[in-house]
Design brief:
Length: 102
Amino acid sequence: MLAITDLAAEAIKTLTTDAELPEGGGLRIAAPNPDQGLELTLAGQPAQDDVVLSGDGVSVFLDATAAAVLDDKVLDVQQAPTADGGQELRFAIAPQQPGAGV
């Protein structure tokens, strides 16, 4: 099952609060075309067939394809350089490390 780091959970909390989503809203990860990557959006509620991960005030909704692709992964947040020389935070997906406790 997809693991979520504390940093990613905090970022999701901030995004959902800033977007004023209803209680139970969260980050939705879908794979409409898995060869093209994943699609992240904010959603007020999960789609009917979504896998719902929740805890510590954070909800993540995964469509069936994304759930299968991310089964052994970790959702994290990393700093990335911007074109103007600054930094921004981006979600990142990495393999789970055995025994890491994430």
